[in-house]
UniProtKB/TrEMBL annotation, chain A:
Gene3D superfamilies with a match to the protein in the record: 3.40.50.970
Keywords tagged on the record: Coiled coil, Oxidoreductase, Pyruvate, Thiamine pyrophosphate
Coiled-coil stretches: 357-384
GO BP, one annotated term: pyruvate decarboxylation to acetyl-CoA
Cofactor: thiamine diphosphate
Assembly with partners or alone: Tetramer of 2 alpha and 2 beta subunits.
Name of the protein in its database record: Pyruvate dehydrogenase E1 component subunit alpha
InterPro entries: DH_E1, PDH_E1_Alpha_Subunit, Pyrv_DH_E1_asu_subgrp-y, THDP-binding
Organism: Brassica campestris (Field mustard)
Domain Dehydrogenase E1 component: residue ranges: 88-388
Known function: The pyruvate dehydrogenase complex catalyzes the overall conversion of pyruvate to acetyl-CoA and CO(2). It contains multiple copies of three enzymatic components: pyruvate dehydrogenase (E1), dihydrolipoamide acetyltransferase (E2) and lipoamide dehydrogenase (E3).
Enzyme Commission number: 1.2.4.1
Entries under Pfam families matching the protein: E1_dh (PF00676)
TrEMBL record, chain B:
Keywords: Chloroplast, Metal-binding, Oxidoreductase, Plastid, Potassium, Pyruvate, Thiamine pyrophosphate, Transit peptide
EC number of this enzyme: 1.2.4.1
The organism of origin for this protein: Brassica campestris
Name this protein carries in UniProt: pyruvate dehydrogenase (acetyl-transferring)
Cell compartments where the protein resides: Plastid, Chloroplast
Taxonomic lineage of the native organism: Eukaryota, Viridiplantae, Streptophyta, Embryophyta, Tracheophyta
One GO cellular component term noted in the UniProt record for this chain: chloroplast
Function: The pyruvate dehydrogenase complex catalyzes the overall conversion of pyruvate to acetyl-CoA and CO(2). It contains multiple copies of three enzymatic components: pyruvate dehydrogenase (E1), dihydrolipoamide acetyltransferase (E2) and lipoamide dehydrogenase (E3).
Pfam families the UniProt entry points to: Transket_pyr, Transketolase_C
Transketolase-like pyrimidine-binding domain mapped to chain residues: 82-257
NCBIfam families, sorted: PRK09212.1
GO molecular function, one term: metal ion binding
Cofactor(s) it depends on: thiamine diphosphate
Assembly: Tetramer of 2 alpha and 2 beta subunits.
Length: 426, 402
């Protein structure tokens, strides 16, 4: 594993554009992770062997760092940052609660997967990204889209299946896309978004090295614990580390697939350990604490922007609701739910802000009210928006509608006037 | 076999402009797709048109099911001769020169030059990132290509053997085909997925698959099959330039076909079929390797007094119902010859489409000759019996034309 980065030298001589991987170095360069003096490098086989046994391995928990920072009496966030984080998490929570209401009122259908309880992960990571960075998610993607900047109106309309939705009503709950905000979806099958995220990171590297553009965009891929038993995950960990892609793999380990406990389905449940097996750092963090997540995210994003490659971050988190709105959620233990409910990330951040005098109750209440209105307005907007017409049926199947082919009359199908009406034979 | 002008040939000849390099639209057909032997070089004169119709019957591929050298007739001197895999490479290289966003990814495409040498020399020229050697993870690298396409690149994804793309079915069906739609048109996926498929020489069951039948239902993708060096290069270029995801099916046994292709740039239309041999008695629809079996059978048929019209459908999805329809309206008899499996193959879909659209013009039921629904056996004799042979084609034509 120590030699994972020392690929074979180019066979055909060293032209500049052929150096995909750095030349062999005798000792891997030290890079400090989490501001600690422990150097986090490509783990040697000796270290790997001991990683299992001891936490003094390259992959560390964040608690130590947070403690270090507290000792020096400086806070992790400023007031502005704190309020941004708070607002984002409140938006996520309120939006999802509204979704549940609307679902039971018959305004949205199908499979709807809510994010309650996991807000710290989305906010902690996505609020560090720029607009040109990409986010790839799964079917539990409403809040990722909101954090990335997609308007609540657009997401709500999409859920209602209206024309004004971010995907014109064609995607639905599990397909939140936004080209403007570089939200690359929204995928219904678990794991199928991870290669897409790897591709987006590849483009970033390509732009830098082949097109010689100034590009340090990173991609963050979110997925769950169940996905970590899927082949696509491992294939992408390998390629991302191999090509040193600017990507962060974020595992939202909420301990449960639908009714399958993570512990029952995984031979080694500690997912962060799978990172070093592929030559990248693996970090475990308390996903119910937005500040801890943010600290880890900062390091991982900076690593990626510097061209040092991918990171695997396992966030221990919990979903307060069932897997989807159709899930009766009977299997999970009440005690477990209570334990995590006590660690509600929003309550925790509120407490932190108030205790550290970064904000007072009044300011936070104002934010909550503002968000309530925003979400109400989003619902009104979605309600008032029109449903897609028949004319939309055949649009967007192909980027170039000539792909529907040539009809018996010699014209392209898309030239048929009935095509725009959505009634053409294709 | 000359690639024939089809459709509005008469008007098209007069509007021909050899300098036009764009994909021929319906009104500007033959410039790019016409026979390389006459039109491209000089001009659509009547004389050359006549000589073309005389020459075509002499151009049928002789004996071997797979020709290694096409009979060349007197040419006008321009053009250069190459093998099919070189034509693919030439098309790919030209597009990579033209647009720096075009890149290649696949197993052994870089340093090895491609298992069928289609990407030979490209890594040296363009670098290891533009011609990416991937690990063996079809699903993931196909998905990676799709993600790259969504974010601005134009990847050409190679499946070392088309059969391996079964592992990438998740990505091809869900993401490649559907993402443009489910994103409401926000993201385009201009990928080309290509590779060799089809029944080879005793390669065994898994390496002899015809994936066009499995992929044809996926909405949002286009499928084309090349069969000559000319259309291989043309389709490769068209596929790369297309904004849609295109699956380009090559055939393992056709890579060494030799033909003279034009020096100047041309592309083939992705949605159009190719008229291989005009005729009057019966329409034979085929694609890829079976084209050569059909042309071999056609030789026999001509000697027996039949006049088959042979069309290489080229576009497997969508079908060019105009070319096919015109032919059916002329001959009233259809024989489909394909290498796909009998059940659910391209021929099955084509039969349905013809029956649906041209039922009134048929004098006989559409007959479809496909491969047996059998995993391709290793033994040479058995393998030969799973695939349609020229003798069967002759018998079928005789039967249909009674």
């Amino acid at each position: 594993m120590a030699t994972s980065f020392s690929a074979t030298l180019p066979l055909h001589g060293s032209q500049e554009n052929r150096l995909l991987l750095p030349p062999i170095r005798l000792a891997p360069p030290p890079s400090s992770f989490l501001g600690s003096t422990r150097s986090l490098t490509i783990p040697s086989s000796r270290r790997l062997y001991h990683a299992h046994a001891s936490r003094r391995s390259p992959v560390v928990g964040v608690q130590e760092v947070v403690k270090e920072k507290k000792v020096t009496n400086s806070l992790l966030i400023t007031k502005e940052e704190g309020l941004v984080l708070y607002e984002d998490m409140i938006l996520g929570r309120s939006f999802e609660d509204m979704c549940a209401q609307m679902y039971y009122r018959g305004k949205m259908f199908g499979f709807v997967h809510l994010y309650n309880g996991q807000e710290a992960v989305s906010t902690g990571f996505i609020k560090l990204l720029t607009q040109s960075d990409s986010v790839v998610s799964t079917y539990r993607d409403h809040v990722h889209a909101l954090s990335k900047g997609v308007s609540a109106r657009a997401v709500m309309s999409e859920l209602f299946g209206k024309v004004t939705g971010c995907c014109r009503g064609q995607g639905g709950s599990m397909h939140m896309f936004s080209k403007e905000h570089n939200m690359l979806g929204g995928f219904a099958f678990i794991g199928e978004g991870i290669p897409v995220a790897t591709g987006a990171a590849f483009t970033s590297k390509y732009k830098r090295e082949v097109l010689k553009q100034d590009c340090d965009d990173v991609t963050v891929a979110f997925f769950g614990d169940g996905t970590c038993n899927n082949g696509q995950f491992y294939e992408c960990l390998n390629m991302a580390a191999l090509y040193k892609l600017p990507i962060i793999f974020v595992v939202e380990n909420n301990l449960w697939a639908i009714g399958m406990s993570h512990l029952r389905s995984t031979s080694d449940p500690e997912i962060w350990k799978k990172g070093p097996a592929f030559g990248m750092p693996g970090v475990h963090v308390d996903g119910m604490d937005v500040l801890k997540v943010r600290e880890v995210a900062k390091e991982a994003v900076t690593r990626a922007r510097r061209g040092e490659g991918p990171t695997l971050v396992e966030c221990e988190t919990y979903r307060f609701r069932g897997h989807s709105l159709a899930d009766p959620d009977e299997l999970r233990d009440a005690a477990e739910k209570a334990k995590y409910a006590a660690r509600d990330p929003i309550t925790a951040l509120k407490k932190y802000l108030v205790e550290n005098k970064l904000a007072n109750e009044g300011e936070l209440k104002t934010i909550e009210k503002k968000i309530d209105e925003l979400v109400e307005e989003a619902v009104e907007f979605a309600d008032a928006s029109p449903q897609p017409g028949r004319s939309q049926l055949l649009e967007n199947v192909f980027a170039d509608p000539k792909g529907f082919g040539i009809g018996p009359d010699g014209r392209y199908r898309c030239e048929d006037p009935k095509f725009t009406e959505g009634t053409a034979q294709v | 076999m000359a690639a024939r002008i089809h459709g509005g040939a008469a008007t098209a000849l007069s509007t021909f402009n050899p300098k036009k390099l764009v994909a021929p639209s319906r009104t500007n057909l033959p410039a790019a797709r016409s026979s390389k032997r006459c039109i491209v070089a000089g001009g659509g004169s009547d004389a050359s048109k006549k000589s073309l119709s005389v020459r075509h019957s002499q151009k049928l591929i002789a004996n071997a099911a797979v020709a290694t050298k096409a009979e060349t007739s007197a040419t006008t001197g321009t053009g250069h001769e190459l093998l099919l895999f070189e034509a693919l490479q030439e098309g790919l290289e030209e597009e990579m020169d033209r647009d720096p966003h075009v890149c290649v990814m696949g197993e052994d495409v870089g340093h090895y030059g491609g298992s069928y040498k289609v990407t030979k020399g490209l890594a040296d020229k363009f670098g290891d990132l533009r011609v990416l050697d991937t690990p063996i993870c079809e699903n993931a690298f196909t998905g990676m290509g799709i993600g790259a396409a969504m974010t601005g690149l134009r990847p050409v994804i190679e499946g070392m053997n088309m059969g391996f793309l079964l592992l990438a079915f998740n990505q091809i069906s869900n993401n490649c085909g559907m993402l443009h739609y489910t994103s409401g048109g926000q993201f385009t996926i201009p990928v080309v997925i290509r590779g060799p498929g089809g029944v080879g020489r005793q390669l065994g069951a898994e390496h002899s698959q015809r994936l066009e039948s499995y992929f044809q239902s996926i909405p949002g993708i286009q499928m084309v099959a090349c069969s000559t060096p000319y259309n291989a290069k043309g389709l490769m270029k068209a596929a790369i330039r297309s904004e849609n995801p295109v699956i380009l099916f090559e055939h393992v046994l056709l890579y060494n076909l030799k033909e003279k292709i034009p020096d100047e740039e041309y592309i083939c239309n992705l949605e159009e079929a190719e008229m291989v041999r005009p005729g009057e008695h019966i329409t034979i629809l085929t694609y890829s390797r079976m084209r050569y079996h059909v042309m071999q059978a056609a030789k026999t048929l001509v000697n027996k007094g039949y006049d088959p019209e042979v069309i290489d459908i080229r576009s497997l999805k969508p079908f060019d119902l105009y070319t096919i329809g015109n032919s059916v309206k002329k001959t009233h008899r259809v024989l489909i010859v394909e290498e796909c499996m009998r059940t659910g193959g391209i021929g099955a879909s084509l039969t349905a489409a013809i029956n649906e659209n041209f039922h009134d013009y048929l004098d006989a039921p559409v007959m479809c000759l496909s491969s047996q629904d059998v995993p391709t056996p290793y033994a040479g004799t058995l393998e030969e019996w799973t695939v349609v042979q020229p003798a069967q084609i002759v018998t079928a034509v005789e039967q249909l034309c009674q």
